[in-house]
Amino acid sequence: MTGQKTPVKEIQAREIQAREIQVRNPRTGLRDYQFTATGKTGIQQACQQLRTAQKNWLACGLDKRISILLAFGEAIKDDRKELIEALVTDTGRQGLSIMEVDIIAPGIDRWVRIAKEARAPAQGRSTALPFITYSIEKRPYALVGVISPWNFPLTLSLIDAIPALIAGAAVIIKPSEITPRFAVPLRKIIATVPELRSVLTVVDGDGKTGQAIVDQVDAICFTGSVPTGRMVGEQAAHNFSVAFLELGGKDPAIVLENADVERAVTAILRGSIVNSGQACQSIERIYVARPIYDKFVEKLIAKAKKIRLNTPHIHSGHLGPIIFEKQANIIAEQIKDARDKGATIHTGGQIENHGGLWCAPTVITGLTGDMLIMSEETFGPLLPVIAFDHVDEAVTMANDSKFGLSASIFAATAQEAIEVGCRIEAGAISINDAALTSLMYEAEKNSFKLSGLGASRMGPSGYLRFFRKQSFMTNEAEVFTIDQFDETHSTP
Ligand code: NAD
């Protein structure tokens, strides 16, 4: 009806309902995909349905839930092609997309083992009052929300969802609006597992959708940046719901004088640039003992120069595009800032525009503490290398950060590296290797400082954190009477 204005109330209602979002393709730079972000009402409805379905999910018992999750793992294996294709389009890289899909089924097996081991309720007897016994049952949160980032879209959507489901919770997942395409085949796979589809919902959306989810769930698993994590944590605290926050990092590597230089260079290069540095546990600061500094830098430059970008063809090299264009701006700004303040750029050093945006490994020396690259998260393949004279100095520089996610230490022996690692304010320390948290999920860890909050998502705690504990206490003797608390009998 031309000429007629849409009533304000209708516009507001629509905004609450849903929003159209254009999505950029990281390889071409074109906005070639569009989706509708779920509005507040949509989230409320989805969460209500999940809460209803969760009751049967919990009642069906651990063994049944395990069998359904194992069936989900098989369904992912059967339909992996479409999921991989969508992830490749979302991220512009293939090998890591295949890996993201193929680690899901073994990941389910790991959580199943952990859940079976944690099955028995704890029980005991009071030491002070031995006639009182207790048993402790685990009561899962009914509804868990998962909000994930764009760097490993599938892995970081399912890493918390799977243990929460096994625990007996229903789960709502909201992937990043930067990489939303994979949600379509993921939903199709979930739909093939009838018992799962009523308790696992993947919604499309942006930050506002995420906010709406935080208000509906009993526990929120958030992976993303510190500023957003702070908002999510504050909102959850307001609701007295639980927030598990997995946030950014500025991981240091320390290479002692007696370390195997060749090994350290190989591991640090990989740990710094895999996925084009778009990983929370990327090595972003490299501290090297002065006697081996020149040799280290020379080898690092030589190896960095051999790294190829996967453009023009996806099969043509090691590194995919910078997925999020705003991240490319941050990387460019840090390079410019370092250059302007006198640093030396040995390799790479620029964002390359091939439709999408790429960045070659960038080895930088001549750094000073006032450079952005030394304090702010980069999330790109930049390798700043700094010499140190004494291990105490290396430890001080490594700890001089608002982040405390993980770190790597290289020394002649593991024991020596662990001794240095004990002095580092970070939750996961890789010994004589780099960024091992990306490869193994068994070891529990907690973030330090602004890198996160809450129980470990790795190891048994990654499952147990989805339960409240409920204790049952039984007095096998006579009950106490109020007369036993009569003040007239109380003498010091
Ligand atoms: P981001 O904080 O911008 O967004 C993460 C998610 O939060 C997205 O799904 C987004 O839609 C949603 N969101 C935005 N505003 C919200 C709000 N107010 N309430 C609820 N949800 C909201 O982060 P990003 O750019 O997608 O991811 C990169 C960051 O993630 C980096 O800092 C990286 O270090 C971090 N990260 C951490 C880990 C880890 O395990 N510690 C792993 C991967 C990435």
Describe this structure in words.
The protein is α/β, with parallel strands linked by helices. The protein folds into 2 domains: 10-247 and 452-472, Aldehyde Dehydrogenase, Chain A, domain 1, CATH 3.40.605; 251-448, Aldehyde Dehydrogenase, Chain A, domain 2 (3-Layer(aba) Sandwich), CATH 3.40.309. The protein is built from 19 helices and 22 strands. A 7-stranded mixed sheet has the order 12-15-16-11-10-18-19, with helices on both faces. Strands 7-6-5-8-9-21 form a 6-stranded mixed sheet, sandwiched between helices. Strands 3-4-22 form a 3-stranded antiparallel sheet, with no helix packed on it. A hairpin with a 1-residue loop joins strand 13 and strand 14. The longest helix has 20 residues, at 40-59. It is globular. The termini are far apart. The mean pLDDT is 96. The chain binds nicotinamide-adenine-dinucleotide.
